[in-house]
Amino acid sequence: MRSSRNRKILFTSSAGLAQRVVQLLSTLITLPLVLHSLGVAGFGVWAAASSLAWLSALLDFGLGSALVTLIPQSLGRGDSNLSRDYITAALYGGTAMALLLIIAGLLGLSIHAPAAGAAPFIIAAGAIALNIPLGTGAAIWLGLQKGYIGNIWQIVQIAITTGLLLAVAAAHAGVTGMTAATYGGLLVSNAAALAHALLGHPAARPYRRVRLAALRILLAQGGQMFAITVAAFSLYAFDNMLTLAWLGPVAAAQMAISLRVCTTATGMLGTITAPFWPGFADAIAAQDHHWLKQTLRNGTLGTAALAIAGSGCLIIAGAPFLRWWLQQDFHFTPALLWMMAAWIILTTLPHMPGLLLNAVSQLRPQIIILASAAAIGLGLKYLVAPKFGVIGILAVPPLMSALLINPAYFWLASRWLTRHTQTHIATKAAP
Q1: Can you say whether residue 172 is alpha, beta or left, with left for phi > 0 and alpha for psi between -120 and 50 degrees?
Q2: d(CA 294, CA 296)
Q3: What is the pLDDT of residues 32-47, one digit of tens each?
Q4: Cβ(395)–Cβ(339) under 8 Å?
Q5: CA of 243: how far to CAs of 198, 249, 334, 341, 382, in Å?
Q6: pLDDT digit string (tens) for 345-374?
Q7: pTM of this structure
Q8: Per-residue DSSP letter, 403
Q9: Which residues neighbour 313 within 8 Å (Cβ) at sequence distance 6 or greater?
């Protein structure tokens, strides 16, 4: 059981790393291409519109995230029918949410004519709505502890998106065309990943009808995962938009590049650690306490080591590399590079304890911690932006991580492990 769990985690982490490497290579090609095709101002608008893609993970109201815990729990108990019930509920629920958003958007457009230049954001909104049910495929594969298949489909997405961006740039289609190309690859690959999961895996095939009991459980856990996702993304996901509004398109372009570097690094580490979430759930069902403790410790140390190593490379070679890559100077000063390094290191440290807390459904404390950090952080960004510019806004997420998020997450994970181990020992000792 333990060796099988470790093997599945290794396969998925390796595929995730490969996917991130391919994504990095694609970014190296496409980002300067888009920048030179659109200009600095157009690039800032495209970056703001394309950065909204994370909303598709948010607007499913946590249904996909809930599946990552509920699928391995039900399969660990040998109940594949319950797993199918949860998947059925997630697909029906996600489709209903997508339809409601599309109808609301169409009504809004019929009442108020869109402003000039709104086309990229309209395209983004429509694609985000469609992707709510389509994105369920990645959650299903991860819950089945076969996330490497989902990662393979993400590699396909990168290839499609890169090809579309190259074609659009050659056609000089502008910001709207670039935005459509960005979201087109996302929709096609996610649709294929979902179809593959539903057709290729018996435990993933939905029923024709939704069981209300499964839907209630999914909505209860999904609602809390939704709140966690909102709070976590709110800490930084609107920084492109805020910079555009407060400091203008040139600063927004610098912020877009900075965040792209930071989120590429943290996303790579997140992809490597994500398979531990269903792994933790499986180990809890098997009462494998030694594996839980060892994996939490070693995983955290490994994540920290990778983050520090990558950040060191960024500090040493980041400025000349970015000038060469973008073919112009966005003034990445040593102070800005150090802040980006702090962003990467401090925001990745709570990955492993966070995955354990997700697996054991310790969700409400996470909501409180992350919501508090996001609310305080928004106020701080507003205060520091006029004086410190991009570097001030970028400094807030690592500051909140160091002072609030990281200490709280490690304390919660340690407390749960201690209590659960003591309970298990007492149960075994009882006559």
Answers
A1: left
A2: 6
A3: 777 777 776 777 777 7
A4: yes
A5: 41, 8, 20, 20, 10
A6: 999 999 999 999 988 888 899 999 999 999
A7: 0.74
A8: I
A9: none
